[in-house]
Design goal:
Blueprint: E1 8-20, H1 27-30, E2 35-42, E3 52-62, E4 71-75, E5 81-88, E6 94-107
Antiparallel strand pairs: 1-6, 2-5, 3-6, 4-5
Domain H-type lectin: 39-104
Pfam families: H_lectin
Organism: Thalassococcus lentus
């Protein structure tokens, strides 16, 4: 558990299209086996320390002819951004994916002093 004492808490959020492979015949739609897509996200403002990031699917367009398999995560989280990650495997066919995210963490205050 993270505990913040006497700090400002910032919340940033977004909704990002990670890929759309149906029209272009990309490997998420036509491929098989392990596949992964990443999308870099930059926060609207830098956090003071590494925030907690929550991700979820806001749109998934999958073929109904195979099992639906998905692993989603936030990777490489820093004070300035992170990578949205979508993985699938086997014969799952994914036309497109959009992911929503929320970052919560400590942010700087206008009243903070910076000592050099």
């Amino acid at each position: 558990m993270r505990k913040y004492v006497g700090s400002l808490i910032g919340v940033d959020q977004g909704n990002e299209e990670v890929f759309s492979d149906f029209a272009s015949g990309g490997d998420m739609w036509t491929g098989a086996g392990s596949r992964e897509r990443r999308k870099k996200v930059k926060f609207s403002e830098q956090f003071r320390s590494i925030p907690t990031v929550q991700v979820g699917l806001s749109l998934w367009d999958m073929d109904s002819g195979a099992n639906v398999r998905a692993d989603i995560s936030a990777d490489n989280v820093s004070e300035t951004g992170f990578d949205l990650v979508f993985r699938t495997w086997s014969d799952t066919r994914v036309a497109r994916v959009r992911m929503a995210w929320m970052a919560i963490g400590e942010v700087a205050s206008d009243d903070d002093w910076e000592l050099y």
